[in-house]
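Hi R.,

Quick one: here's the 7,8-dihydroneopterin aldolase sequence you asked about.
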Amino acid sequence: MSDRVLIEGLAVDAVIGVYDWEREIQQRLELDLTLAWDNRTPGHSDRVDDALDYAAVTATVRDWFADNQPELLEAAGEALAALIRDRFGVPGVRLVIRKPGILPGVRNVGVVIERGSLA
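And here's the predicted structure, written out as tokens:
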């Protein structure tokens, strides 16, 4: 399968970081998700019930950050990849999590987490 569902530019405010000051504020994160999903059925049926629910995936990510305060982007990525695969039956996920403006002169720092099969 080579089909994908994309959710790009998902903005989330989160308590994340290793420094004391980071534990006291919310910081903006930006996420891009690539989800392996067989789009043949919804492509033929034109029924939303056959498609991956983008809004539900987005809400799941936002809810996770509302309920969790990881120190590392890596920990957030691992947890979210597992949650999305389990909850939505997605065989593969690629998450890009960016933390913009955290370092002087650097637009973004971030991680890319790929779990399962995107092929």
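Strands lie at 4-14, 27-36, 92-100, 108-116.

Cheers,
M.
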